[in-house]
């Protein structure tokens, strides 16, 4: 039986649009009698937040984690559509918030410029941002700690995020990472913008 832990790493505030979207996702889970619990972790160090949320999901005996970042817009059907794929890791991709605007789904470990461009169907990728991702809890049991961490990319001389770290470890362990390209077209990434008269 499925028990979903909806895990949200956040700072001190969340976008109103995210709050509404989360409410609609939960409403659909209630209507279809899928057991679930919403877990928040407030902080500033994402690897620590995600690792703590996984431990909390284990404590409530969740079968799956649905990761939702607090700056995401997702449709009400998100949980059901990701669960329907019946794979260990599946995400919906979304746009970066800074130009050049492009997908956060990476298809090649050696070339970060190669990104998923398909808009329909289920696709395997090397890594993807975790703003909207479903993970079977057995993945965490298999990979072991730390599930999330920062790493350093020598070729780009920059830090790699905790989501890329997780996906790289999963792929290296033979656990494919998938992206629902159809659902991806319905996501939005909230940001900030200033507005001036005359523009």
Structural overview:
The chain has helices spanning 16-31, 46-59, 78-83, 137-143, 162-172, 181-184, and strands spanning 3-10, 35-42, 64-68, 72-73, 89-91, 105-106, 122-125, 127-128, 132-136, 151-153, 158-160, 177-180, 188-189. It has 199 residues and is an alpha/beta fold. It has a 7-stranded mixed beta sheet. Strands 4-13 form a two-stranded antiparallel sheet. The longest helix has 16 residues, at 16-31. The radius of gyration is 16 Å and the shape is globular.
* Tally of strands: 13
Helix content: 25-40%
Mean pLDDT: 94
Structural class designation: alpha/beta
Provide the gyration radius in Å. Answer: 16 Å
Low-confidence stretches: none
The gross shape turns out to be globular
User: What's the arrangement of strands in the largest beta sheet?
Assistant: 2-1-3-9-5-12-7
Number of helical elements:
6
Cα(first) to Cα(last) distance is 53 Å
Portion in strands: 25-35%
């Amino acid at each position: 039986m499925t028990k979903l832990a909806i895990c949200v790493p956040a700072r001190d505030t969340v976008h109103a649009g995210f709050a509404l979207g989360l409410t609609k996702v939960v409403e659909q889970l209630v209507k279809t009698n899928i057991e679930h619990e919403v877990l928040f972790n407030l902080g500033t160090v994402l690897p620590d937040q995600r690792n703590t949320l996984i431990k909390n999901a284990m404590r409530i005996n969740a079968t799956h984690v649905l990761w939702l970042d607090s700056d995401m817009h997702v449709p009400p059907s998100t949980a059901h559509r990701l669960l329907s794929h019946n794979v260990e890791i599946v995400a919906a991709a979304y746009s970066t918030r800074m130009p050049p605007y492009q997908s956060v789904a990476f298809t090649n470990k050696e070339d970060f410029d190669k990104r998923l461009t398909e808009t329909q169907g289920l696709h395997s990728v090397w890594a993807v941002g975790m703003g909207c991702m479903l993970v079977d809890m057995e993945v965490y049991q298999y990979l072991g700690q730390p599930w999330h961490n920062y790493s350093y990319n020598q070729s780009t001389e920059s830090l790699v995020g905790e989501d890329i770290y997780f996906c790289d470890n999963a792929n290296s362990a033979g656990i494919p990472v998938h992206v629902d390209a159809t659902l991806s077209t319905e996501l939005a990434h909230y940001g900030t913008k200033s507005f001036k008269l005359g523009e």
